[in-house]
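Worked Example 4.2. Consider the chain below.
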Amino acid sequence: MEFLSQLIISLSFIACGIVLLVVGADALVSGASRIARRFGIPPLIIGLTIVAIGTGMPEITVSTTAALGGRTELALGNVVGSNIFNVLLILGLAALIVPLSVQVSLIRQEVPVMVGLSLLLLALVLDGALSGLEAGLLLTLGLGYLVLLVVQARRAVRTGPAVALDLPDPGGWLARVPAPLLIALGLVGLVGGAQLLVHGASAIALSLGIGELVVGLTVVAIGTSLPEVAASVAAALRGERDLAIGNAVGSNIFNIALCLGLAGLVAPDGLLAPTQLIAFDLRVMVVVAVALLPLIFTDYELSRLEGVVLLLWCAVYLTWTVLGATAHPLSEPFSHVALFGLFPATVVFLVATVVLALRARK
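Applying the procedure from the previous section yields the following structure tokens:
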């Protein structure tokens, strides 16, 4: 009975933390956007910087808080899990609502940058840790990429107003609160929510006897991805199909560069990477990032069928992780089915879609 009550309390901490993170990120983005508009900053630049980073603030605050407390497995698991779910869950759901159109720049720049950073992160932690110097490199690359986006956005604004992103004014209580107070409330919500989420996740890991890495890869990762889920699904419902996929890809880039960069710098001894993370989850993150290229290459869109494939692999990854963490008897046969059945079938599907797309263009 005591175990059940402790579990309920921990889940309550996680639920309250997620709510505070989502509301805090929304308030921070709304307040910052209003101030930026007041100073005449173009909407496109606001969308590429404030909104893009704002939706990633839950991951940043949770991983930084976990790193400061020495919970490096939770910090790394949060980012790796979020990046996996951003592609499999968020884009799968959004594509199921409506096929997502893809801009050429996404294929030429954003997705290759995401793939490159994913490969770089894997290479940096192969020795078992992400050091402060390596975290500084990621942070520098992230800030450099942010500057590049601003330069490109300013150039786009000068060439024509039609490319500007029209961000709607916030409604409800957000519209009635002064912008500086919104920013302050957003920061308080993010920090408080991160503390509650990290505490609840650590308590669950301790009570169930599973590692913080698994909790970070699943519960925490999905929880901190909720702003991206909301933003991408809402964009798909509004018909803004390019924004839905751009938000998920941009969040993955900032998760690796800014989130792990900051977390690695504040961690006392760097971020220690468990063997399981290096051998499995990080490689899954890289494979998922690489697989997105052939998917969006076909007709420059992510179709409903491809969305179903992404959601299928989301379920497979979650099941695989949970079975492995609990040492379930089905863990080994399930992994064999996934590796030697579903994975080859998915590769054949990807190759076929690319070949058909190339033939159609000829």
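The beta strands are 100-101, 129-130, 271-272, 301-302. The CA atoms of residues 9 and 200 lie 8 Å apart. Compare this with Example 4.1 before moving on.
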